[in-house]
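Hi V.,

You were right to ask for the full record rather than a summary. Here it is.
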Amino acid sequence: MVEYRGEAIEKMSMEGRMTICNMSIEWGARAGMVASDETTFTYLKDRPHAPRGAQWDKAVAYWRTLRTDDDATFDAEIHVDASNLAPFVTWGTNPGQGVPPGGVAPAVEDFEDEVARSAALRALEYVDLTPGTKCASSPLTPCS
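Predicted structure:
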């Protein structure tokens, strides 16, 4: 179980938070979470199946109690200076198959390991990319 905390996480949209929690599974965690806060409540308010009126207020009051205690201890803590992180664009089907924006999808021959070469070939075929395809810097544009 991984709990994401801190200024960088607090500034993320709900979609970003859900993405990072989902990525926890990809690196071996059983679950990832971000504590409920104003961003969460704004996202949930007036959505289908969300409580309404007094029930909403009661739910928010309860959700506020679910935060980790300030003095909680963990099995391990990892602190990452998010200001030093660079974005990556995936050219394949897993987080390890990525390049910085403006990078290119690799040639299958660039992989010495047969398993990695085979995985790269399958990924490039799946996403319909040709090796050497430049990955755009736009966050909404995949490699093109």
